[in-house]
Write a structure and sequence with these properties.
This protein has about 400 residues and is an all-alpha fold. The chain has helices at about 1-5, 10-15, 40-50, 55-60, 80-85, 90-100, 120-155, 175-200, 205, 210-240, 250-255, 275-300, 305-315, 320, 330-365, 370-375, 380-385, 385-400; strands at about 165-170, 375-380.
Length: about 400
């Protein structure tokens, strides 16, 4: 019917009533706008359809039978030809519009104005409501479960020699500021993202529609604006610590020894051990990826990424080895859908890694939180977990002639 109205406006207009009855426009089938469902009813029907339910079943059960009092007169129903305007359904036109082969012209000149039907939106919705939420949720629950089980078995990692009562400066104020700027913004982004992804299905009925609407609006504002703090913190952390996180032979020895977490001994380590380097590079690389897709979502028509990315990947010839051909022509809506999915997938991966990082830095290891709390860590803790770094600091202090071999501040 849409195609008939779009392609045959004159014929379609002939079917419209010339004058509403009693000041109320009549709808097809004899229903007036006053009989139309309310906004709440329409919302409930939309939600029911998304749940796979028959949204019209309650309406059909309560609708009056044809020919009965108050019911529609079957003899007054318009013919099929009359409903379609000219008797043609224009399936070819529908198909051309759907697959982008129709020469569509619009008065608006925005990048997405010419896309009238975008079938990929339903595929995106299915992935977002299905595998993305399910697998992402299972990942986070699984990581939390593993960490809880590990804590029950291993317990908290204690300082074997006990606290010495003497500390060494591990991180300066500006380093801790960068860390907490990145960490705090990430927590807000993670919570707000999870709220937007899961809230409609699991929280709206609990909170109520109005409260949920206000909450998701505020959450979206927080998510969009806190992202700038996250990107700033990411750049600061990269500049401060990239040189200390370059892999070395010491890291392989640390990995073979289980990092001192599984076994009883503590392998040698510099300022950052292999585990911390993994967290660093995961944060930097995935953080950069989630930032780029976030910018593409904030500026949808300014930063199309995936068509160019797919073109570059296809150029390598690797997809062709498996018989794959990535799409290199994408509509603006498709760019947004791919950006949103990749944004969420990468964010789930980051959340899984950061959960383990939070565990070790808080309840998992004694003395670890002090590094980012006050910046000062107990010297025995530092010698057990970062002995090579402590030895370097003490040697530098001795060369400067510090009294009693005092420990020099960290870099």
């Amino acid at each position: 019917m849409f195609a008939g109205l779009f392609l045959q406006p004159a014929a379609a207009q002939e079917q419209l009533p010339s004058k509403p009855e009693s000041g109320i426009a009549r709808q097809p089938g004899g229903l007036s706008r006053a009989d139309s469902p309310s906004a709440d009813d329409q919302l409930n029907r939309i939600l029911a359809r998304q749940r796979g339910e028959n949204a019209l079943e309650p309406v059909l059960r309560t609708a009056p039978e044809a020919g009965s009092a108050g019911g529609a007169d079957p003899h007054s129903a318009a013919t099929i030809a009359g409903q379609l305007g000219s008797g043609l359904s224009y399936p070819d036109a529908y198909r051309a519009i759907r697959y982008g082969t129709e020469d569509v012209r619009t008065t608006a000149h925005t990048p997405a104005a010419g896309v009238l039907i975008q079938t990929g939106g339903m595929e995106w919705l299915k992935v977002r409501r299905g595998p993305l939420r399910e697998w992402g949720g299972y990942l986070l629950i699984g990581v939390i479960g593993i960490l809880a089980l590990f804590f029950l078995i291993r317990g908290r990692i204690r300082i074997r020699a006990g606290k010495a009562g003497r500390t060494i400066l591990r991180f300066t104020f500006i380093e801790r500021f960068a860390h907490w700027l990145l960490a705090g913004s990430f927590v807000l982004l993670a919570l707000s993202g999870l709220f937007m992804l899961f809230g409609r299905s699991y929280l709206m009925d609990v909170m109520g529609k109005e409260a949920y609407s206000a909450g998701v609006t505020a959450t979206k504002w927080v998510h969009n604006n806190v992202s700038w703090a996250f990107m700033l913190g990411l750049v600061m952390v990269l500049l401060f610590w990239v040189w200390h996180n370059i892999p070395s032979r010491t890291d392989w020895q640390w990995i073979k020894a289980g990092g001192g977490i599984i076994g009883k001994g503590h392998p040698h380590s510099k300022k950052f051990n292999a585990g911390q380097k993994v967290v660093f590079w995961v944060t930097i690389l995935l953080g950069a990826s989630v930032s780029l897709t976030g910018l593409a979502l904030l500026f949808p028509f300014e930063m199309p990424m995936f068509a160019k990315t797919f073109q570059a990947i296809d150029w390598t010839g690797i997809p062709g080895l498996f018989g794959w051909h990535l799409p290199t022509q994408l509509a603006p809506q498709e760019e947004q859908q791919l950006a949103q999915l990749w944004h969420s997938i990468v964010a789930f991966g980051m959340m899984a890694v950061i959960l383990a990082h939070i565990y070790i830095g808080t309840i998992g290891m004694e003395g670890a939180f002090d590094a980012m709390g006050t910046g000062q860590v107990d010297i025995n803790w530092a010698r057990e977990h970062h002995d090579l770094w402590v030895a370097k600091r003490e040697a530098e202090a001795a060369r400067r002639g510090a009294p009693d071999g005092a420990v020099a501040p960290a870099e």
